[in-house]
Amino acid sequence: MEKILIVDQDEINLLVIEMVLKEIGYDVATITSFENCINELSSKQYELLLLGLDVSQENSFKLVEKIRANPDISEVKIIFLVSNNVKVDIANAYRLGALDFIKKPTLPEEIIQKVRDAIRKKKKDTILVVDDEPANLLTFNNLLGIGYNVKTASSGREALDMIREKRPDLLLLDLHMPEMDGFQVMNYLSEIDECENLPVIVVTADDDLDTAAELFQAGAMDYLSKPLVMQIAIQRIRRIIELTHLQRDLKAEVKQKNKELMLTNKRLQSLSDQTIFALAVAIDAKDSYTNGHSRRVAQYAREIAKRMGKTLSEQKDIFNVALLHDVGKIAIPEGIIDKPGKLTPVEYEIIKSHTTRGYDILKTISVMPMLYIGARWHHERFDGNGYPDGKKGTEIPEIARIICVADCYDAMSSDRSYRKALPQETVRGEIENGLGTQFDPEIGRIMLEMIDEDTEYKMRSKVDR
Ligand SMILES: [Fe+2]
User: How sure is the predictor about 431, in pLDDT bands with cuts at 50, 70 and 90?
Assistant: First the structure.
């Protein structure tokens, strides 16, 4: 775990922050004197220094300058601990590479968040300064050099070459340069894929609103007016870099959340598929003779749907609805379902009630409302003489008309409790006779087409998922 050193003269504050950070697993050391800070930093590999800013700030800043000048410890990340009544020289703090400020006293959550953010920050941000005036390059280098990795280019062309080689985190671009001016550089940048969202701050002496508008139009995120007020320049640069990081982190987070959501959806989908399938197996197990009936009907229904031009997702829905079309049979006594002989009128009524019982079972599943449609109306006839509601023609939902044909085909082409499977010719004839009376003629014709292609009468044995 990362090592954190806290240096502050305020002992209570020291203790509080130490407790908070130890609680979440950081390796924390504390000292109260500035004099020992450099020795302590040199003794171990500290990742982060939380440094109290004294009232004059001078001692703290001097200490940081010494730290930055010492190659063994110059890379340590620094957050300043600031008392509420102290007005911080923020520009100077950033110039010295401060990552953030924690106000004292503060909430543990804020301490944790800021420390985590700082630890996560892996390297200094790179700023590419482009200016044809060597003196300006030197000024920026001196001012930004401690907190940032500063690179310089003396022309637009050189800058573009450097950017193609390695994308910086921010571009500080002089507007007026010979050969290629700032507008042209931004224009070229818009054509480089990797430079999408590269923040550009333009430095210009043209302090008029028209130029400002043109700069934003050309893709600049901000502009600094010459002569530069360095305190302002540094803070603007820093804010823009922070903003860019925030945007990038947000995008990464959204991407990650989407990925998680898709995975959850996939799991839920697969749970629902497996549940429906398990239920279909339970339905089929009720009648040993028609074992596999639901799965076969589902397969035939899906094939019909495919031939009707339904989308893959519609085909899947029809498959699932067909899998559960006989769910109401769970509520019918086995003695009646399995009865080898002829059913009495009362028993027949009980069998018929599997449609409404299935409907009752499935109607509460609001996320898949079409499930109950197949269960309730798959015994309706196209001529209106079916049950339970005597619906007619296209009053019967299409999904139920499809299942009706698939169901009857399977009933005839598989062994039942009271007879063997019928010959294919007979099955074909029954379907053909039923066109327009029992079955939707268009859907029935698709079934006939499937039968005609099945020259060896093998379709019924090819049941899989
Ligand atoms: Fe049925």
Answer: very high
